[in-house]
Specification:
Blueprint: H1 2-8, H2 41-49, H3 52-57, H4 60-63, H5 68-90, H6 92-96, H7 100-103, H8 105-108, H9 114-143, H10 147-164, H11 166-193, H12 209-224, H13 243-271, H14 277-288, H15 292-324, H16 333-352, H17 358-387, H18 409-422, E1 427-431, E2 434-437, H19 439-443, H20 450-465, H21 471-495
Antiparallel strand pairs: 1-2
Helix pairs in contact: 2-11, 2-13, 5-12, 5-13, 9-10, 9-14, 9-15, 9-16, 9-17, 10-15, 10-16, 11-14, 11-15, 12-17, 14-15, 15-16, 17-18, 17-20, 18-20
Length: 496
Amino acid sequence: MAEATSIVTHAPDRPGITLGVETRSIDWVPDAERHGKVWHQGPLWFLGNLQYFTIALGFVGPSLGLPLGQTVLAGVLGIAVGTLFMAFHASQGPVLGLPQMIQSRAQFGYRGVVLVLIGTLFTYLGFNVADQVLLSQGLSGVFGWSPGWVAGGTAVLAILLAVYGHDWVHRAFRWLLYLSLPLMLLVTAGVLSGHAGGHPPSQHLAFTWTAFFAQFSAAAAYNITYAPYVSDYSRYLPRTTSARSLIASVFFGASGSAVWLIALGAWLAIRLGASDGLVGLRDAGDHFIPGLGAAAAVLSALSLIATMGMNAYGGMLTVLTGIDSFRSVKPTRAARIVTILGLAGLWFTIASLISANAVSTVFTALTLMLYLLVPWTATNLVDFFWVRRGHYAIADLFTPAGVYGAWSRRGLSAYVIGFAAEIPFMVLPDLGGWTYTGPGAQQLGGTDIAWVVGLVVAALAYLVASRTLDRSAESRAMTLSEQQLGAGQTRSRRAR
């Protein structure tokens, strides 16, 4: 267990988080370094969705001919479902003090977790690719700025925020919320009072289950895709944090702004005929109060850049976890910076090659993310809340020789079975001219229920597979782990 001890008891040169660069990454956060308040989670995730990407999400239903009221209803239902999964994942952070993907080694094994890391990394990159496309097209449409310069500038700002880490992400989100919330409230007041422009729909709109479920799935995917890293931002909270309070704070924070801006985006698409959310926001705001729309557009863009920084931070944790699964990684500042720069170069290059419109890019990215993440979220939550009930041998998560092993057939088989069950029901959007509609989806008239099927099947498969767990061996490992963690915290205090 020497490898585990060296990682989980690592004492940084300056403990925890300072005004500079965060010192920890994929290692365990000792009790002495826990800080923060539950209420901070609400503003963090409220601002995380109070930005341009969410507005564009409200364009999905109208682009398929869905009327305004039914688009809003599908968005509300989808956000409620997706945020529920996200909020329950958040409660794992204070209990374990670990990044989400390190904790997932308990279900998939020390090395087996690489399977889900691939899907998770795709999510981080997919979001930042879509964000860069949105910002380049949106700011070019609003201010006439060069898309290339916009892409480069946003990447630099996102990199800086990710490098400085956890506390700076929280700070940036809170300040952006204070600045942007009044502007978005004013724009919405203009819409509700009829002073933001608008006209009757110029296109024929009619309810179809295909369009309704597409909007529902896109909204659900939006917050489900936060699941792999929501606990990364709650892992510094004290171990005594109330799970109910934390779940409520995350749920209402993340869902409130998402429902609001999906509804606003649907109105901009249908009543203003906007094809770009940022341009529509500018037009609606400026029609109400001159200059309001432009200011709201800038703040919405800055909020999206901050979210890109959050994605880059989570992507860094994912990459380091993957490398550490095969070769021990010391979680240094240099390692985090190099990894973030590499990820930035990758998402910048991919986004620069995309010529599709922003709404199409958003919908495609969300669909693929949902397919990949649903079997993982089902397996992880079932394990945490029903199988192991939040009790883990943390030290064993840092070694392939621990009680969780290098490869866990239970989690891996549940993920594969869940993903395979999705395939007949998938409805893949356009991918470079190629599309796919599974036979099950064809029988449902093109309605995509793949992620629902994958969720249920993966959860049941893992429950069945977990009936053979050796609870006594895990109990002994947890006792030894607590002893190691306690000794490590003592050494860390002495080192300081």
